[in-house]
Amino acid sequence: MSVTFTSKDHVARVTIDRPQRMNAIDAATAGELETIWQKIEADPSVRCVVLTGAGDRAFSAGADLKDETGVSGLDYWAAANPEGFGAIAFRRSLKVPVIARVNGVALGGGMEMVLGCDIVIAAESARFGLPEAKVGNLPLAGGMTLLQRLIPRNIAVGLMMTGRMASAQEMAHYGLVNAVVPADELDAETDRWVADILACAPLCLRAIKATVRDTAELPPDQAQAMRSPDLIAALVSDDSQEGVRAFREKRAPVWQGK
Questions:
Q1: Which of 34, 112, 189, 217 is catalytic?
Q2: Across residues 93-99, what is the average pLDDT?
């Protein structure tokens, strides 16, 4: 196994476990990730996902360039996973919040996986980049289309056209990273974000994720008019009553996810 998966106390933790290869993703690892995302989607008890890489050198260096597939760039593009790199960059069926715990470099496909997450917590030593052009490739599995939507266009293009790496502090400045902490505080900071997520009504979080995802490119009035199933489910849920009741009774709500 090159991916470690655990689920406990409503939190699924997914770790790319190939530190000797900078947590690069080969075909087998990609298949494991797809299987894990499907397991998480089928488990109603999961309310948050933490995605990270093993060790302290890399979140993921992306595609394993030593993986001899014999596939041309054009063939790779034609057969690309519609879910994006790591089956997460474009994934829409995963409805719970996903935190990227970035413990080192996030390059190429590793960066594309970060772009598919909802919240990014990075160690001060983390570095981000899409260096594909330096090796005659392209960031086909999410990079070219997602990065320009999440940070200023010229910054995104500059990174892709030079292959440069950006620091965690730079990416926080441009709005991609939510928090930057010393490496020895990365777990504690991630756990604080997890705790805050679990304190919120799970159906509300699903509705927020769906609405943000589905309306990002719509004019505000059209976005406001959207009535997604996730939005309706949150509004008519028992949890919506429990939240108000708990506030009035000055206690923590007990969420049922229904």
A1: 112
A2: 97
- In angstroms, the Cα distances linking 54 to 23, 29, 32, 58, 74 are 7, 14, 15, 7, 31
Q: In the annotation, is 68 catalytic?
A: no
CB atoms within 10 A of CB 20: 10
User: pLDDT class for 1, splitting at 50, 70, 90?
Assistant: low
pLDDT for 225 equals 87
- Distance CA(101)–CA(231), nearest Å, equals 28
Strands (E), 17-151: 48-53, 58-60, 98-102, 105-107, 119-123, 127-129
Of 124, 132, 185, 249, the active-site residue reads 132
Spatial distance between the Cα atoms of 116 and 12, rounded to a whole number of angstroms: 16
pLDDT, tens digit (0-9, with 9 covering 90-100), for 189-236: 999 999 999 999 999 999 999 999 988 888 888 988 888 899 999 999
Residue 219 tokens, joined: 């004019």
Is 132 a catalytic site residue? yes
pTM of the model: 0.92
Joined tokens for residue 18: 């190939």
- Is 112 in contact with 139 (CB distance < 8 Å)? yes
Pairwise CA distance, residues 252 & 258, whole Å: 17
Mean pLDDT computed over every residue of the chain:
92
